[in-house]
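Quick one: structure for this chain?
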Amino acid sequence: MLSRAGSCSANTSVVISWGADHMIARCTTVIAILLAFRPAAAESLNADAARGLVVGKLFAFNCFDGSRGAGRIYGDGSVVGTIQFQGVGPVEWVSLPPGTLKVKGEAVCASLSRLPIEPCFDLNRIDDQNFRGSISGLDFAYCDFSRRVTDRRPRPGPLSLKPTAW
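Got it. Here's what it folds into:
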């Protein structure tokens, strides 16, 4: 469902509340931002290599148009994250359903029910933590991604207000 806030979710079909072109462009941008990885002078990635690098990991991204955010791609092709379009306005929550991102041959492509095409992405690695991506054939439309490592150390319990004896 595409709501007035511009987020996507898996439970219903797209609801157009304020301009089909604008909303479809937002979902396409989110998909391109969250999975397209193509650095200028870097190693090109096939679909299997890209899957190994990104599935389940958190990435922050910055795009050519100023859009930015963070997200995680899951093994079922779903995407969850946040985005601020063109770097202005509110940060919006985005959730795309399973099967949104899929492998076609050696390419990673996006599938949205209301989008008449399935865009595919050129994927490249800059280094072990950074990627760039673009929509295939549109090298100027890119996003730079950097992996964010989450702290998985156990947190100490709550502090006690009771005095302790040493």
